[in-house]
Design brief:
Elements: H1 8-22, H2 44-58, H3 62-89, H4 94-105, H5 114-137
Length: about 140
């Protein structure tokens, strides 16, 4: 069996590999900066634009506050339900109590919707009462 040169697909792969290797890592010919040389400072306009972007992201919209309040109410209700089931089964764990206590310590900004705020206040009050009852029994 006689082998005649390299097949076209192997040659194409070799050319591709050479091209990738050629366009890979290259060291610039510039001299490295001296150890004592000062670097150029960042322009203050770049910092102020970053600050303004962060301020825009941090600004709460009424919809965002409402969404967080509903999420908090759902979380507290779920924890209260888990606590109720654990109490009925006689298996209340300290981790459940501490989780509820930490959730109650996290306070959110008020929402514009008075009904929603009233419901959230009622849920928080119920959670505080249940937490006090459990802590007293332990």
């Amino acid at each position: 069996m006689k082998i005649e040169g390299v097949s076209s697909s192997v040659a194409a792969q070799n050319r591709k590999a050479e091209k990738i290797a050629a366009s890979g890592f290259a060291v610039p010919n510039q001299a490295a900066p001296k150890a004592g040389a000062a670097q150029t400072p960042i322009p203050s306009s770049a910092i102020s634009s970053l600050d303004s972007l962060l301020a825009l992201q941090a600004e709460d919209t009424p919809q965002e506050r409402r969404r967080r309040a509903i999420s908090r109410a759902d979380s507290l209700l779920d924890q209260l339900d888990d606590l109720r089931v654990a109490t009925l089964s006689g298996r209340v764990m300290h981790s459940q109590i501490s989780k509820l206590a930490s959730s109650l310590r996290e306070r959110l900004e008020g929402v514009d919707d008075e009904k929603l705020q009233s419901i959230l206040d009622d849920i928080e009050l119920r959670a505080e009462v249940e937490l006090a009852k459990l802590e007293k029994s332990l």
